[in-house]
Fold this sequence. Notes:
heterodimer, A: 644 residues, alpha+beta, Flavocytochrome C3, Chain A, domain 1, Methane Monooxygenase Hydroxylase, Chain G, domain 1, 19 strands, B: 249 residues, Ubiquitin-like (UB roll), Fumarate Reductase Iron-sulfur Protein, Chain B, domain 2, 2 domains, 5-stranded mixed sheet, two-stranded antiparallel sheet, 8 helices, 7 strands
Amino acid sequence: MILDSKIPAGPIAEKWTNHKFSSKLVNPANKRKYDVIVVGTGLAGASAAASLAELGYNVKAFCFQDSPRRAHSIAAQGGINAAKNYQNDGDSVYRLFYDTVKGGDYRAREANVYRLAEVSVNIIDQCVAQGVPFAREYGGLLANRSFGGAQVSRTFYARGQTGQQLLLGAYSALSRQVANGKVKLYPRTEMMDLVKIDGEAKGIVTRNLITGAIETHAAHAVLLCTGGYGNVFFLSTNAMGSNVTAAWRAHKRGAYFANPCYTQIHPTCIPVSGDHQSKLTLMSESLRNDGRVWVPRTKEMAEKLRSGGIKANDIPEEERDYYLERKYPSFGNLVPRDVASRNAKYVCDEGRGVNETGEAVFLDFRDAIKRDGEDNIRARYGNLFDMYQQITGENPYQVPMMIYPAVHYTMGGLWVDYNLMTTVPGLYALGEANFSDHGANRLGASALMQGLADGYFVIPYTLGDYLAKIGPAPVDSDNPEFAKVAGEVKERIEKILSINGSKTVDYFHKKLGKIMWNECGMARTAEGLQKAKKEIKALRDEFWKDVKVIGSNEELNQSLEKANRVADFLELGELMIDDAYNRNESCGGHFREEYQTPEGEALRDDENFAYVAAWKYMGDNEEEVLEKEPLEFENVKLTQRSYK
Amino acid sequence: MKLTIKVWRQKSATDKGGFVTYPLDGISKDMSFLEMMDVLNEQLSEKGEDPIHFDHDCREGICGMCSLYINGKPHGPLQTTTCQLHMRSFSDGETITIEPWRAAAFPVVKDLVVDRSAFDRIIQAGGYVSVNTGGVPDANEIPIPKVIADEAFDAATCIGCGACVAACKNASAMLFTSAKVSQLAMLPQGQVERKTRAEKMIAQMDAEGFGACTNTGACSAECPKGISLTNIARMNREYFSAAVSSENV
């Protein structure tokens, strides 16, 4: 298949307007004849489900949590970008577009990013109209702050819980449509597979997580708004339930998976405290505005620190290495996420880590407190300091915080064209579940923007075009394909339950996570990746021979849910490895040690790798096939990022 | 740490259920409460016993999914979510009693998992501003005084966990409902439907079987987000003023 991105012709600023005009429309009276399935109720899913229902389509919305309001978008802290230029500081749609393509290390599709920037302004209007309580100035107008990768203040926020407020806004719009009877909600229901009829997506198979019932749902189109796959690393800042299953099963039914190796590792997370750790907690990167990152200058001093022979505050100034300030004098502690993360790894690999596990660096507010006073620091970061203290039991006003990078977001995802349609006609992917807008690195405050852009302002137009073309004839829910796929789902569940081996699901998940983190995390090498591929294959074989899942299908069975998800992570992990191995360059969150500048920075190879790597599933245990979508840059000039 | 965990086990909604006691050793004080539960569950699984089911997801105190009633208090001894509670809040040798939320409107699904869909239905009854996507005014067209926006925000931080209901001797959902009613009553965007919203949400709340409010304040004292009792007072005002003047219902 030749990947057709369906980018509209014309100048970049006119593409979306022209495209909306040339898209077919569904007559208002006919919209009620169409059924649409939306899987996932985060920012992308809830906004899409609500907006499509408002238009008149019949929507079925699914989530695995007990309520749509729990989707992990709720945990986003920092804010949402929009090119409103309320600050009169030189922002524009074009600048937001440019910053996003550059921040993504020139691996995103220009036309999609431009549209994202264009509709960003509508998102803020929409959310305010819903009653989202954004931060305001004393004059009553909206406040902004600045974020990494931008020189303008374009980030709208609601204290440190912007994601929560935006999601509750979308959830309220969704709830209104549930009350109107236009959305039927299916909470505690997990998508297990995609059903295709004559090559087009026509429904899904689900498992009711309370009763275990395997059910089929037919529709004219299926939207996957199922988030990212960071939990392949076991430890990440994702919610415990976040998983790749819906996207992965769709992939196995023909949807290409794009750029799976692009993973964002966030530098300011609370370090792992022991083997019992179940998840990692992020702290806003705004902390790096005042905190200074350091480790002891020598390995010996670090060892003394780890064994309790000396306290952090007793280490004299000349024994401290403020490595970011030393290596990047102009950006200092505010280098982008990927650079900050990688350098933390380097110093810890040198044996200079500062906590018991040797995998932590200091983020020290001593000097900021001395300069600005404790009260001022409290006013800026009070809630983050409290959170840190609650989790670690240490007072960061008195001792330096300890931080370490953690997996946070996945830029890769299902390949979609300009209409957000995957390579399976009728199957769409929105939000973090698709790949299109962030290239190899996402800028802060852009995830919320993309999720809502896709759901509120893109899919209502692009889906209509497809639906108008296929016509409103009802989907035949008696088509044998539904029963066939449901049968396969049941078979797979029975297989998992029948293994009755000796190791728990978490055993496999943790092992997989370790392999991925060590070989496909912050720094990757061809050799390490090849080794990891073998290890994952072996682990997968072991899983299917020796996993132990207690209980039956016909009940609430959290072990079975986990087993289902981990089985898919075990396949996805290998594809991520393949993709990282194929990409013989470093870009954004993908850093191959073989490809770096003499100063140790990411070295892109635009000549050979300015493409989207889209992978086609070829069958169980078969090597996937790579298809390339070349990236053409007509507006943005490709340069080497430098933060010296 | 060595602990004794006394936990409510109930196979299904129709099962009678009862307490089961498990000894547990080797718990570190740095573990979160749910990580302690993970350790126990891992041990149960290894022995071939059904792990204890409980709701949890984000594990950073914001999704509102975790819902354990620990030693007689929702979310345990601290005013936080269960996932943000750490074992350093307990002492070595302690017996910890864990129950599900207890409220008629939150029926037990299994073990410690309850059905909180009643909260969704209360929001569906009117916890929104009726605007469709598109066609809304510019975000800065209506200035909102900062104090109002901040107070609306405080109400909006409710995570819908249900600790307020679990804490209340009457299992009242007034704090939850009033948080949403307040948020939208304070903002200019919520004015048009202000009266019907209060009436409809309260009607739904009653229909779900939540109890009455006697202003004892246990809900607010146990709320992990510190939602203020003022919201209940405001909702009562909204409700009475709607009752005497509503032109819609």
